[in-house]
């Protein structure tokens, strides 16, 4: 973000495929061109899915658009407020064991709802990301995200 094509924050993971209950282990590497005062260095896990939204425009026509919706978000600080330039930070994020469970009851009603969602396209996949963010006050944050699989 501050450099030209060179990543200033990178995420390195032991692996990219996980199951609920496992621990994501990795390292964040920070290499800035100049010292930056930041509130914190954070790491997290985010789940996003694309949802289709139908809206009526000013002419009365219906229009569909896709937008991202967060379905899960967790972040934790790795370091506190200070001047950052470079450094490496190890982290661990425990994936909740119930992360992929739905709140639907078991049985015929649940099966009907699931089938309806699949047939209407309202059931979509969740895309999972490990995120790293240097929280810079009054400026753009330095951030990176890397996609992982949880299943």
Widest sheet, order of strands: 2-8-7-4-5
Helicity level: under 10%
Per CATH, the class reads: Mainly Beta
Please give the largest β-sheet.
Answer: 5 strands, mixed
Mean pLDDT rating = 83
Annotation keywords:
single chain, 151 residues, mainly beta, Immunoglobulin-like, three-stranded antiparallel β-sheet, 1 helix, flat, 9% helix
Structure description:
This protein is mostly beta strands and 151 residues long. The chain has one domain: Immunoglobulin-like (Sandwich), CATH 2.60.40.640. It contains 1 helix and 8 strands, in the order ββββββαββ. The protein has one helix at residues 108-120, and strands at residues 9-13, 17-18, 23-38, 40-56, 62-79, 82-94, 127-135, 142-150. The strands form 2 sheets. Strands 2-8-7-4-5 form a 5-stranded mixed sheet, with no helix packed on it. The longest helix has 13 residues, at 108-120. The protein is flat. The model is unreliable at 1-5 (pLDDT under 50).
């Amino acid at each position: 973000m501050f450099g030209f094509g060179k990543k200033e924050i990178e995420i390195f993971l032991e692996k990219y495929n996980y199951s609920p209950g496992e621990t994501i282990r990795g390292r964040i590497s920070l290499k800035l061109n100049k010292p930056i005062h930041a509130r914190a260095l954070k790491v997290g896990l985010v789940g996003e899915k694309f949802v289709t939204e139908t809206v009526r425009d000013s002419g009365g026509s219906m229009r569909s658009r896709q937008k991202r919706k967060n379905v899960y978000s967790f972040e934790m600080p790795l370091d506190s407020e200070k001047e950052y330039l470079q450094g490496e930070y190890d982290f661990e994020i425990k994936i909740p064991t119930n992360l992929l469970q739905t709140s639907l009851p078991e049985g015929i009603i649940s099966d009907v709802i699931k089938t309806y969602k699949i047939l209407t396209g309202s059931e979509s996949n969740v895309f999972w990301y490990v995120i790293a963010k240097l929280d810079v006050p009054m400026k753009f944050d330095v951030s990176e995200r890397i996609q992982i699989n949880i299943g």
